[in-house]
Amino acid sequence: YDNKYMENPVTWSILQTSTGEYLFGTTTGLEIFDGKSFKNVCLPKELKMRDINTLTETFDGLILIGTYYGIYQLKNSKLVRNPLFNDLNNIEVYDIKQHKNGNLYIATNSRGLFEISNRKLKNYNTGNILPTNLISTIYINAEGKIYLATDGYGVVVLDKDSVTVLNENKGLLNNIVYSVQEYDDNELWICTDEGLSIYKNGIFKNIKKSNDISFYSTLWVLEDNQKRKYLGTEIGLLVLEYSKDSIFVRRLTTEDGLASIEINQGACLKDRDGSIWFGTIKGISHYFPENNYQVKSSPKVRINNIFVMDKKIPFNNEIQSLSFKHDHNYIRFEYSGIDLTAFSKMKYQHKLSGIDPQWIISTRTSVQYTNLNPGEYIFEVKACNSWGIWSKPEQLKIIIHPAWWATIWAYIIYALFIISIATWFVNYRVKREREIGEYKEAQLKAKAAEADKKVVIAEKKRRDEELERAREMQLMMLPDKSPKIPFADIEVYLETAREVGGAYYDFFIQNEESFYAIIGDASGHGMPAGMMVSITKSSLKTMGHRPTHLILKRLNYVLKDIIPKKLQMSLNVLIIQKDKIEFSSAAMPPIMIYRHKNSTVEEFSTGGLPLGYLEETSYKNNIVPFESDDIIVLFTNSLPDTTNLSNEPLGFEAIEDLLKENHHLSAKELLEKLVSLPELYSLGKKLIDDLSIMVIKHK
């Protein structure tokens, strides 16, 4: 079910109600499906983020909806507030679960866990018993034990008055946990950012990869009526055949009918009929496990064609051996597997004895070997279907005959000839060595010097051309002009200390009343810094609309996985709206805001390590007002670090003074003042670091 049926197909939560209706929480509200058609119920349009994060139905039939702005209730096909949850308004609610004793538990993004008992609200957080306030999902088992999946602290277990933590130190695969589920024999299935952890009796079994299929970013797990497990991931739906002694996994993608391979966290349901529903970024997929028949027979494989020197030769499968001349040693084998269930998902293994030390796995149906030496070879190929069953290998013997000049008698003649030539040459060399020694040495020195000079000149020219092209490419990645925003006047400046620099800025417009402003600085200079900027911009393009601290956290994982250890990226991310500013920082100078109301300059910094420095780190976000004639100034370290002739830094106070003295100027005029400040202070010293400055003035 995609946008042909739904107003917005991006689904984050799914619920089957006691009346049999299906509810789907999307990025713009609620979709109600009665089995025939969809009905859309929107959250208030004045909300900036209308995502529905979770859906639940209480024992007494209340339909509760968790959002970025607290909890709503579905009543008479409308989303309304319930006074019971008024204290949770404007709190990001990620999950809601009801205990067997009737108590409600609410997971939040920044306020920990809330419990509602007898209409009284109680908060569990880092101020009392929890190690973190970042709770993603809740799972309550049959005995009433509560498991909290956290963002960065593993699994927190609440059992009456005791609290225990399952994390990496105890064997968990990764501390970023998306969901927890318990199945037969008290096995905990824990979905993490790096794969699946199965916990039982104090022992973890971790699965990152199986059947060449990665378990990276496993978001949720469901079990069908046949005890088969289904894992929602960012690369499709994984169907898991699991036992204590073996594991087999298949990956279902858009080729199998999925709306998209990118499945969303929390959007999963096994309904009362046993079928599976799950949400993706392009809609909802409905899967029927009873149609999942395993193919137990092995596929067939055959060698179809042989090409020698790019010419097809006569061949059929009854031929067991082929012989070729020495100059016919470029051979291509074409083969195919026969499987009527999923031909496009077949895999192959091939090996040529004497060339390939082990079997080579591929999805290609041909392989070419070039410049084969004379000798005997055995070519083997096997096929595997989507259920992991391999065929028996098909074999063909290949013989490459040597040329006549490569026979044993030819080598004996060669040896005798070489010996005679060598004897003559040694005698000649002894006779002429003194005469030509000094002359040859002088000639060699002159030629070497000339060659070295040419190499140096050519290398310098090539390097200069490459750096100029890299610099042009970097500048093309930056916005060519400041965006036009009705409530703000925006100006920006960037100057690199070398041909390719690490300074970076960008803008992402949401609407007329909200936009992202980005400014950053990569460690170092030159090509490595330019590479960091390119990766950062490309990654930001894929983030979508998220809170600023989650953008930095996700970007940190991407950069830590890609870039070398010695490179980091400092970054400020701001969401600027007409009346407020949300921002997070990763090792950047503080954000300066001139307050027109009281003619003061405020500095804000949320701290945070550079991106790519540590894999496990978190970032804070802050929200401050943005009022008429207020001025935001963002800059890289090179501005306050500018030194004078006495090697004294410019510092932040000089920047604050400039803002107070020139706040009446336009953003463009104020930027010109800031750009000229380092040169005036240093008396014309050359810039030693990349410089970027951004001025945003509220109209």
Description:
It is flat, with a radius of gyration of 34 Å. The protein is 18% helix and 39% strand. It has five helices and 48 strands. A hairpin with a 2-residue loop joins strand 40 and strand 41. With 699 residues, the protein is α+β, with helices and mostly antiparallel strands. The strands form twelve sheets. It has a five-stranded mixed sheet with strand order 32-38-37-34-35, with no helix packed on it. Strands 39-48-47-44-45 form a five-stranded antiparallel sheet, covered by helices on one side. Strands 40-41-42-43-46 form a five-stranded antiparallel sheet. The model has no long low-confidence stretch (mean pLDDT 88).
